[in-house]
Design goal:
This protein is an alpha/beta fold and 466 residues long. The chain has 16 helices and 15 strands. The structure holds adenosine monophosphate and zinc ion.
Length: 466
């Protein structure tokens, strides 16, 4: 059974989908006006871990991730480049999917874009107006009337007076004429200077939807009135998710989401990594420095999602060496020959249990990885002492494949050396068996000069790139 920390109830609870089989989850997606930074990617990588863990625990997943292609930043970007909104956002949608692929993030079932769902948003806004939960101003803006939604603040555990302080800090130039400072925009009236020729027609006049209603409309359209799980970064909790609840429940009268989860931030020097602070790295920046996607994935993944993670290059180097330990181990297992006494069975069972239990406890990745590293240490000793047979080696490889269905960090490709290096290593092995140490050393030197290391094993050798 998979247990998660539900932000709304603030409890660790069993994740049980409403139909008992498929977790229908909504994950707030990117605003496509720029390349995502690795802070954003931390959230998506965790959502991927969760998605994979749900399947590991025998359930199905139906995941929706929206693409926010309508907001102040995308409109500003399109106008500055003098291209259509779609032309502008297309570049960043593409880049986003490339990044997900590099990080081995599985595809969600559907990625709806706001521009394709204006009618759904308009319908929802109209229902809210009809119910008196929303109101239109003379300028053609539509606001949500927070006074009509007494449950407001239940997710972020803030009371309304605190929220008013928070909300007043967030008042933007296009949010005026409101009855109350906490009321938020559902529809923003068209302003030529700001919006150029980007607008949609609606019963409330020309304009565009607010960011929050985009998520409510698309979540309900694809997942039904009550989702199983809704998640995003912790900065989304207030006001975005609080507003999503108000709009959705104001409209349907039903609970919007059974569970809520929030990922903590990626920091740089103690501050949230963000575009506005300029303290960010994109995945592309790190790839250009020679890091691999799976190294970045490991770094983002290996700290529990409810703990802040400070980004450093030392951390990235540590991720690299942790992966190397896994790779070396897997490579060594693949070379195990038959016919040696086998005593590892019990250790495999312990590791399987440790990994599974850690994951089941609100995805305690640090404990899950620690269980694997413990296991690796023990098995290396078994191999050194010739106590691991081929059958166990294969079982371990199979177990690691299972782990990797959740982690997606292991490399499939052996670090294959060129053919002539392989041949030299083979000749060196024969020389050693024939106790021709001089030839063996000569060949080792040649391999070394070519940039490879040959390591001797009880049953042969492995070649590694230096
Ligand atoms: P945005 O494109 O700004 O709407 O953000 C997309 C997702 O990334 C949201 O779920 C945010 O909560 C999340 N996010 C933004 N900054 C960070 C950060 N520094 N660390 C982790 N997640 C973040
Ligand atoms: Zn959202």
């Amino acid at each position: 059974m998979l247990k998660i920390f539900d932000t709304k109830s603030r409890k660790v609870v069993d994740l049980i989908p409403q139909d008992g089989k498929t977790v229908r989850m909504y994950t707030c997606g990117p605003t496509v006006y720029n390349f995502p930074h690795i802070g954003n990617l931390r959230t998506y990588v965790f959502e991927d871990l969760l998605r994979r863990a749900i399947k590991f625990f025998g359930m199905n997943v139906y995941q929706v991730m929206n693409l926010t292609d309508i907001d102040d930043k995308t409109i500003k970007g399109a106008l500055a480049k003098k291209v259509s909104l779609n032309e502008f956002t297309e570049i960043y949608k593409k880049a986003f999917f490339e990044d997900l692929k590099t990080l081995e993030v599985e595809k969600a079932e559907i990625y709806p874009a706001a521009t394709d769902h204006i009618d759904d948003m308009i319908k929802m806004i109209q229902i809210l107006i009809d119910k008196g939960v929303a109101y239109k101003t003379e300028d053609g803006n539509v606001f949500f009337r927070i006074a009509k939604f007494p449950g407001y603040g239940a997710l972020s555990h803030l009371n309304l007076s605190e929220l008013k302080v928070g909300a007043s800090e967030r008042v933007r130039s296009d949010e005026y004429e409101k009855e109350s400072v906490s009321d938020f925009a559902l529809w923003k009236a068209y302003e030529k200077e700001k919006d150029g020729d980007i607008f949609w027609e609606s019963p409330f006049g020309k304009g565009r939807p607010g960011w929050h209603i985009e998520c409510s409309a698309m979540a309900i359209k694809y997942l039904g009135v009550t989702l199983d799980l809704h998640m995003g970064g912790v900065d989304n909790m207030f006001p975005h998710h609080e507003n999503e609840i108000a709009q959705s429940e104001g409209c349907t009268g039903k609970t919007f989401s059974k569970y809520w989860m929030h990922t903590e931030h990626l920091l740089v020097d103690g501050k949230k990594m963000s575009k506005s602070l300029g303290n960010f790295y994109t995945l592309r920046d790190l790839l250009a420095k020679g890091y691999k996607g799976r190294e970045v994935r490991y770094l983002l993944l290996s700290t529990h999602y409810r703990t802040q993670l400070n980004f450093t290059f030392e951390g990235l180097e540590a991720a690299r060496s942790s992966l190397r330990r896994f790779d070396d181990f897997i490579l060594r297992l693949k070379k195990i020959e038959a016919g040696i006494k086998d005593e590892a069975e019990h250790e495999i069972e312990i590791a399987k249990k440790g990994f599974r239990e850690a994951l089941s406890e609100d995805l305690n990745i640090s404990n899950a990885l620690a269980a694997l590293f413990d296991f690796i240490r023990k098995i290396h000793t078994f191999i050194d002492n010739q106590k691991l047979g081929k059958e166990s080696a294969e079982k371990i490889l199979h177990f690691f494949k299972e782990c990797d269905s959740v982690l997606a960090i292991f490399s499939d490709e052996e670090e294959s050396a060129p053919k002539e290096i392989q041949e030299k290593a083979e000749r060196r092995l024969i020389a050693r068996q024939e106790k021709d140490w001089k030839l063996a050393d000569l060949l080792r030197n040649e391999i070394d000069k070519a940039g490879y290391l040959v390591e001797d094993l009880p049953q042969g050798f492995v070649i590694k790139k230096k």
